[in-house]
Design brief:
By secondary structure, the chain is an alpha/beta fold. The protein has one domain: Rossmann fold. Helices cover 38% and strands 18% of the residues. The protein has a six-stranded mixed β-sheet, sandwiched between helices.
Length: 131
């Protein structure tokens, strides 16, 4: 039996709102993350939520964000990709990294399953699926 903690990480597309430092810190912890700003000119300043979801879906990537409103985008419902959002947007970089890292096993398992679900990531590794 394969140890899930040693399995290849799923790939995520990170929304701009997470910031470069947060993404760099998660990458240092073994996360495979593509930053939206790496795919578009001008650091993706004008890239819409619709485009974010479309890019993630086209590549089979899950989404990491602080923006819970993305789940209301029509493209999210038809995209078939999981989305993981922090429970609150006003979280420090250190706390953001800690929340995602503490929930890593659950997030990675859900991302690998590839279900079009919306997940809220809370403190202490708690992750809840939302409708």
């Amino acid at each position: 039996m394969t140890d899930p903690s040693s399995a290849q990480p799923p790939r995520f597309l990170a929304d701009r709102c997470l910031g470069r430092v947060t993404i760099d810190r998660l990458r240092a912890l073994g996360w495979d993350i593509v930053r939206l700003g790496e795919l578009h000119s001008n650091d993706a300043q004008t890239t819409s939520d619709e485009e974010l979801v479309t890019i993630a879906a086209a590549n089979g990537w899950a989404i990491l964000t602080k923006d819970k409103r993305i789940r209301y985008q029509p493209s999210f419902h038809s995209a078939g990709t999981p989305l993981f959002a922090l429970s609150g947007g006003g979280v420090s970089i250190a706390d953001t990294v800690e929340r995602f890292e503490q929930a890593k096993d659950r997030i990675w398992a859900a991302a690998r399953a590839g279900e079009a679900q919306f997940w809220i990531v809370y403190e202490h590794g708690r992750v809840e699926r939302r409708a």
